[in-house]
Amino acid sequence: MSKYTALDSALGRPRVLIIGCGFGGLEAARKLQHADVDVTMVDKTNHHLFQPLLYQVATAGLAAPSIAAPTRVLFRGQPRITTLLGEVTDIRPAAREVELKDGTLLSYDHLIVAAGATHSYFGRDEWATFAPGLKTLSDAFEIRRRVLMAFEAAELENNPVRRAAQLTFVVIGGGPTGVEMAGTLTEIARHTLSGEFRRIDPGSAKVLLIEGSPRVLQAMPEALSAKAKLQLEKLGVEVRLNARVTLIDANGLEVETGGGAHGTPANRYRIESHCVVWAAGVAASPLGRLLAAATGAETDRPGRIKVQADLSLAGFPEISVVGDLAAALSHAPGKEPTPVPGVSPAAKQMGRTAATNILHRLAGRPTQAFHYADYGNLATIGRNSAVVDLGTPFGPLRFSGKLAWLFWLFAHVYFLIGFRNRFVVLMDWASAYWSFQRYARVVAHVESDPNEG
Amino acid sequence: MSKYTALDSALGRPRVLIIGCGFGGLEAARKLQHADVDVTMVDKTNHHLFQPLLYQVATAGLAAPSIAAPTRVLFRGQPRITTLLGEVTDIRPAAREVELKDGTLLSYDHLIVAAGATHSYFGRDEWATFAPGLKTLSDAFEIRRRVLMAFEAAELENNPVRRAAQLTFVVIGGGPTGVEMAGTLTEIARHTLSGEFRRIDPGSAKVLLIEGSPRVLQAMPEALSAKAKLQLEKLGVEVRLNARVTLIDANGLEVETGGGAHGTPANRYRIESHCVVWAAGVAASPLGRLLAAATGAETDRPGRIKVQADLSLAGFPEISVVGDLAAALSHAPGKEPTPVPGVSPAAKQMGRTAATNILHRLAGRPTQAFHYADYGNLATIGRNSAVVDLGTPFGPLRFSGKLAWLFWLFAHVYFLIGFRNRFVVLMDWASAYWSFQRYARVVAHVESDPNEG
Fold first, then answer.
1. Of the CATH numbers 3.10.310.10, 3.10.50.40, 3.50.50.60, 3.30.420.100, which one belongs to the domain with range B15-44+86-119+283-362?
2. Is residue B196 within 8 angstroms of chain A, CB to CB?
3. Whether residue B336 lies in the annotated active site
4. Which chain B residues in 38-97 lie under 8 Å from chain A, judged by CB atoms?
5. Same fold, A15-44+86-119+283-362 and A125-280+384-448
6. A29-56 pLDDT per residue, tens
7. Pairing mode, if any, of strands B81-85 and B38-43?
8. What is the arithmetic mean of pLDDT over B56-60?
9. B426 CB within 8 Å of a chain A CB
10. How far does A104 lie from chain B, in Å, by closest CA?
11. Where are the alpha helices (DSSP H) in A303-394?
């Protein structure tokens, strides 16, 4: 019962296949939309997700449609761009075709692989049940459910020890997502839920942020990391640095500190919690391994594909890899190549370069090396709290606090897709700011995961 | 491991327990919020759902939070109202206590049961897998997924017969929900998705509305039913009246017409479809049976509890049943009692009467008989199409078409809870009206149900 859908170009136009409609894939398609090529974009969801605001869906601040734009709508006026919903299960570079889960085969002349990243539990995949990560809308709904249900369970719980465990929230990983989640969780406990419970004080909830390294926000300069930690603590987050998670189960986790290079003795302790969020590890999409096996491309430790300077694969100039799946280097003129960070501006720029290089190849011109234009780095922490590190022609501009928060806010609204979303998100934020309320506190499936304990 | 949480009133205030936070339960709690009683409201979800607009969530026109208000927020400023999330598994009238699924026991002095209704497949529960109904947010998400995924599957399908089945949508039941669903589905196919597909024409999709009786919208006067049918057909819906469903499976359904009172021969035929929506049968919440067994109360065929004139149960003056779970009669002064319809204004009015009667009993005054004030009936069909039947002091006022649609629209926005929701819903509708776009076209779980075929 295998299906076959050849991508046919009636006019004999070159066929470009893009896997993934995240920032990289979307930007590549946009760059190609007016070119004389037929583009097919395949993704396993029907929407482009604005991942930088996914934590807002997980913390009930935004409704899912505000940050998810249906891919079809984005290309409705572009007859040369075809959108398909399907999961890629195989890539066959020799045959120049890609297979979908339902058996559909798609052939291509040029392939852009932008399949992104997923969580990594560092080989402890059994932790996924107890500490969900935050990459997809389903993840966000699950975390939203666990957070809100923990307070509900605490209100019904008579045993003070179990009640305290219900009111303990643990975020593992001090990167941007972990910092945002921890900061927002304290805001929910201290402000949003205030006055809504009769038997518990939601404000007594503990929010812990566990980070294995000596500082949060490692991509930031040290001074901003320190500021971020202070701001987190001001919001009520307990930040535990140099703390490694050694076990997670249905009722909590075990953490180890010390025992490292400084010769301090190891100290292992347990935290009882029913709501643990994983924001620690990122691994390349499993498609990376598949592609590496088929092309002989090298991968790095998180499974990303090492690409050539122009983002293509050695021996396969018709295949490019962009975004979080690519281990790419930035080639600034006259400088040593530097690694490209796994952030959305980099994914977008790679998507544009890969698309441009396809057009160059079709025109018989040499391809360009990828050069990442780094405009800076920003992370929000919570209400009125953020850190910003901008590159300017006059040197770095670094600031934190309320101004940084406003900068973060408008930057994110600006990059959201669609006027409606920008408007509604701004409105929801304004209303949340004044009222401390969070609008999307809806849980459709109350039932807990059977594995959850 | 049984839990016990007695509802205690520190000041010895009477304890009122309300089961269900739909229209009836919510209105009862509101009526009691300033009275000298302690109210506990228990529900299996964390939100009050504005069910009249649930079909908009199912058809991707609205995000879930726009029609679901967190119950806690509604009573945050009312320290005497406690909200609990839990599923009632037993009611024990003799002990005046209620048991939740987790073992929690709640005792009461006064009980209002407002547990509502669920789908009925008339004894064919196996149909639920193939033809989901529309009562909860989960139901709406599942229908949204099936509708949007049918078009996606059709775009990937090479076989024309299977493609036609993917593009056939069947709604079973010609009540308000069925009519709304069918009308909106044609709008999605003809307008919303226009220009977004490359291999199929979404406008070629067939939408069938199957109704067992000789007319749609049976609660309406016959002339308005006929107008509704005409408007549906103008939108592109195939309306099949006097058609009984005899079978539903993973690939479609069987329908029988004729063979009835008029002596026409029975004609049975099959419709191939992968997206069937059930809007035909309603049954009382299973709690009804439980309560009837415990109190000896009578139930009617759909399982509703027959209540006394003041909505209480014979022999149990401290128990009232309101909303869709109650088979109540309206006692207009000087008239014969008439059955109360299963609509939200009736549920609200019953909630108010039940609450008032508790206050009367506490004050030692006689209870009131319930009197349903019928302000009319309205149903929307689709863009610019609705039918309205209003009772006025000068006789019935009936109209249809665009004016009726505007009336329907503003009536629904008016009754939505919360300024934010009213504003956003109006904005989403205005934008949908002008652009034909539907904003909430997001599917979080693409995977089809394993039972779906």
1. 3.50.50.60
2. yes
3. no
4. 44-47, 63-66, 68, 70, 72-73, 75-77, 79, 82-86
5. yes
6. 999 999 999 999 999 999 999 999 999 9
7. parallel
8. 94
9. no
10. 8
11. 344-362
CB contact under 8 A, B65 and A445: no
- Write the DSSP assignment of A137-161 as a string of letters: HHHHHHHHHHHHHHHHHHHH---HH
When CB atoms are compared, the residue of B65, B141, B148 closest to A439 is B65
Q: Write out the two tokens for A45.
A: 């969801």
For residues A209 and A237, the answer to whether their CB atoms sit within 8 Å is yes
Chain A residues in contact with B137 by the CB 8 A cut-off are 442, 444
Q: In this structure, which amino acid lies at residue B416?
A: L
Look up residue B374 and give its two tokens.
């019928």
User: How far is the C-alpha of A341 from the C-alpha of A378, rounded, in Å?
Assistant: 13
Residue B50 to residue B53: CA distance in whole angstroms:
6
Q: Which two tokens stand for residue B221?
A: 């006067």
Q: Domain spanning B125-280+384-452 has what CATH number?
A: 3.50.50.100
A-B Cβ pairs (cutoff 8 Å, strict): 144
Cα A189-A192-A195 angle, rounded to 5 deg? 90
Architecture of domain A125-280+384-448: 3-Layer(bba) Sandwich (3.50)
- Nearest CA to B19 out of B297, B342, B322, B372 is that of B322
* Structural tokens at position B128: 């639920």
Q: Which residues of A touch B424 (CB under 8 A)?
A: 424, 427
Give the per-residue pLDDT at A152: 95
CA distance B108 to B42: 12
Q: What is the maximum span of chain A, computed from C-alpha positions, in angstroms?
A: 74
A141 touches chain B (CB under 8 A): yes
Name chain A contacts of B156, Cβ cutoff 8 Å. 3, 5, 84-86, 100, 102, 104
Neighbouring-strand partners of residue B105: B99
Determine whether the interchain pair B46/A441 forms a contact, defined as Cβ–Cβ distance below 8 Å: yes
The DSSP symbol for B299 reads B
Which is the catalytic residue, given B99, B142, B180, B187? B180
Residue A450's pLDDT is what?
34
C-alpha of A408 from chain center: 17
Which among A83, A442, A445 is the nearest to B47, CB-wise? A442
pLDDT at A297: 97
Helices (H) and strands (E) in chain B, counts: 11, 27
- Is B66–A63 a contact, with Cβ atoms under 8 angstroms apart? yes
Question: So where are chain A's domains?
Answer: 15-44+86-119+283-362, 125-280+384-448
Length of chain B: 453
Residue B441 sits at the chain A interface (C-beta within 8 Å): yes
Pairing of strands B338-339, B376-382: unpaired
Least CB-CB distance to B158: which of A5, A156, A197?
A: A5
Partner-chain contact B65 A137, CB within 8 Å: no
Contact, B253 vs B247, CB < 8 A?
yes
* Three-state secondary-structure class, residue A164: helix
Q: Do B156 and A3 touch (CB under 8 A)?
A: yes
Percent of chain A with pLDDT over 70: 94
Calculate the average pLDDT of chain A: 91
Furthest-apart CA atoms within chain B: distance in Å? 74
Q: Give CA–CA dist A65/A55, Å, rounded.
A: 14
- Token pair, residue B130, equals 């193939």
Q: At what angle do helices A419-435 and B419-435 cross, to 10 degrees?
A: 180
Type of residue at A5: T
Model pLDDT, residue A451? 33
| Chain A 254-283, residues with CB within 8 Å of chain B CB atoms | none
Angle between helices A23-32 and A344-362 (to 10 degrees): 30
Residue B10 pLDDT: 57
